[in-house]
Amino acid sequence: GESVGLHLPTLSVQEGDNSIINCAYSNSASDYFIWYKQESGKGPQFIIDIRSNMDKRQGQRVTVLLNKTVKHLSLQIAATQPGDSAVYFCAERDNNNDMRFGAGTRLTVKP
Amino acid sequence: KAGVTQTPRYLIKTRGQQVTLSCSPISGHRSVSWYQQTPGQGLQFLFEYFSETQRNKGNFPGRFSGRQFSNSRSEMNVSTLELGDSALYLCASSLGQTSTGELFFGEGSRLTVL
């Protein structure tokens, strides 16, 4: 079946390094993608989104890249800080307005 | 501006009971959606309400139901609770229909079924 998934369940980086979190999706009808951050004991927090008519979008220290050819989404965090430690989810919304989330990647930032 | 508020934050129920969870969206937001989060299944969409109408529904049994009031506050109900219903239930609000715009999540209601 179609699904949203993540390549790596955990990622550990050194403070100050750049982080890249990946996500694969298989529903070619999806036209809207979102990245969320969830800290322990809290609900997910919106980070950045991208529509399928774009291949890159930048925010503050974050960049989302969308490769529709291989159905791949990535989140890049520049100069990763300890406060970035959290679980990161990608999500896709298809043309039926169904929202599906990936399993999540736990990012740990080492000081 | 107050965020999304969910009550209760924690609750314990036994199998067969029913539970009602409440969600107050951000002021002015008309769309509320509900999600179940478990370690095994991750975040799964339950349903979405916009202007008191259910606009979309996930793949959950009929024991899971919800409603939205005229003030945009929403409740979800789970009847005949099963052990597998133990989860964090998250509510999210958005200004318009959730097909556009960002979702603002509450901190969730953690349900334990014994």
Can you tell me about this structure?
The complex is a heterodimer of chains A (111) and B (114). Chain A is mainly β. Chain A has strands at residues 4-5, 10-14, 19-25, 32-38, 45-51, 56-58, 62-67, 72-77, 86-93, 99-101, 105-110. In chain A, strands 2, 4, 5, 9, 10 and 11 form a six-stranded mixed sheet that branches. In chain A, strands 1-3-8-7-6 form a five-stranded antiparallel sheet, with no helix packed on it. Chain A starts with a strand and ends with a strand. The mean pLDDT of chain A is 89. With 114 residues, chain B is mostly beta strands. Chain B is 0% helix and 53% strand. Chain B is built from no helices and eleven strands. In chain B, the strands form two sheets. In chain B, strands 2, 4, 5, 6, 9, 10 and 11 form a seven-stranded mixed sheet that branches. In chain B, strand 5 and strand 6 (53-57) form a beta hairpin. Chain B is globular and about 35 Å long. The relative contact order of chain B is 0.32. The chains are: A mainly beta (111), B mainly beta (114). The interface between A and B is medium-sized, with 22 and 24 residues.
Outline the biggest β-sheet of chain A: 6 strands, mixed
Oligomer: heterodimer
Q: Would you report the number of β strands of chain B? A: 11
Radius of gyration of chain A over alpha carbons?
A: 13 Å
Low-confidence stretches of chain B: none
- Contiguous helical run count of chain A: 0
Distance between the termini of chain A: 40 Å
Poorly predicted ranges of chain A: none
Class inferred from helices and paired strands of chain A? mainly beta
Identify the biggest protein-protein contact and residues per side: A-B, 22 and 24 residues
Strand content of chain A: over 45%
